[in-house]
Structures are given as structure tokens and as C-alpha cells.
Amino acid sequence: MIALLANPEALESFFRSTLPAATTAAMATEGAKAWLRLVEELNQDGFLQFAVPDESITVTRVVSGGQRVTGEAVVVPKGGNQGGIRAVLVFDSSGTLVSASETAQIKRGIRPICQATKLLDPDLIVRGMYLVGGGGMLRGFDLRISEETEIPVHLVDAPLECVVLGAGRVIENYDRLKSMFMGARR
Fold first, then answer.
1. Domain 8-107 classified CATH 3.10.450?
2. How far apart, in whole angstroms, are the C-alpha atoms of residue 48 and residue 128?
3. CATH number listed for the domain at residues 117-180
4. Where are the domains of the chain?
């Protein structure tokens, strides 16, 4: 049977019905790692990478004789992404999952307008990006983009003129380039 787990509540219900009894700290740790791995997917946008460091998982005994497990899936800091997902799982004395919850604190970095952007220029990461136009002249803008994307950013020598000269070249070569424009008749 295939079940769609679209939210933490559905995931908790699935875990309650399928997770083997966590009668040892090692089993509770594995349950927490599995929970974190699946919760990552609920927060995924295709650009995040997570890691679950072993030292982030802690198991403590609760008064009732059960176990409380906490852990964190940390966002790999790449492309301006930061943060993590903290989870808490509580098991009763027989090892049955009583509750599971998580808190996501994720700061997403800059995203391309479409995912194809990543495929268009694989040298972008090596050569960097070039800012043109008046927006590129904003003080500190190049540094901010570089810090957020971890890609070198350069301001061209004459940013305002680049836009005008580029538009002029498009107009001069419109017949050759018109298929690139939306709504253009072919």
C-alpha cells in the first residue's frame, strides 16, 4: 500500500502504526533519524541539503519509564541556505511512540527563477555572475548576492551602457533572435 504523507500529522500517524517498539536507546535513535529524514522531505524545495549529525541525537529517560529523543537535521550551508529542523519523539515504557513533533527554522537562499537556470551555464559557479543595469550599481548589492549564493559577483565597467548596447544589438538582429521572444510568430 502506498500512502501520501503530506504533513507532519500524517507522518506521525504512519510512524505510530509502523514503527517497531523502541525498547532501547539505539532503537529510539534510529526512529528519530528516520523521522528527521522524512520531515526533511516535507520542507524540501529541491535546493536544500540536510545532514543529521550523530551528536545532535540525544536520548533521555522520562519519569514514566519511557524515552524522549531529540535530534536535528541541519541544513548544509550552501547557496545561502541556513537553519535546521529540530524533532522531539516521546516513547512510552513499552517503546510505543506517544508523540512526535518538529520545528523547522530554515532560511532559504536565493533561488533561480526556473530550475533550468542551473543547467544553462555550468561555469557560472567558476566564472561568477556579472551585474548590469542600474540595480547592479546599488552599494553593497554585489557583496550581498555573492555572500548569499557563494558565487563570485562582478559589476561590469559600464553597467548602464551595457543594457542600452545589448538592447540595440537585439534590435539590429531581431530577425535572427525573434524565436527567443514569447509570443513571437515563427
1. yes
2. 21
3. 3.30.420.40
4. 8-107, 117-180
Q: Which helix or strand (DSSP H or E) is residue 68 part of?
A: strand 67-75
Residue 125, C-alpha cell as written in the block: 559557479
What amino acid is encoded at 173 in this protein? N
Q: What is the DSSP string of 24-66?
A: SHHHHHHHHHHHHHHHHHHT--SS--EE--GGG-EEEE-TTS-
DSSP string, 167-186: HHHHHHTHHHHGGGSTT---
Amino acid 94 reads S
Query: In one letter, which amino acid is 90?
Result: V
How far apart, in whole angstroms, are the C-alpha atoms of residue 90 and residue 97?
6
Per CATH, 8-107 and 117-180 having the same topology is answered: no
pTM exceeds 0.70 for this model: no
For residue 124, the surrounding DSSP H or E stretch is helix 124-127
Whole-number Å distance between alpha carbons of 28 and 69:
7
* Residues 177, 107 contacting (CB under 8 angstroms): no
Tell me the C-alpha distance between 167 and 174, whole Å: 10
pLDDT in tens, 89-148: 999 999 999 999 999 999 988 776 555 555 555 566 667 888 888 888 889 999 988 888
* CA angle (55, 60, 61) in 5-degree steps: 160
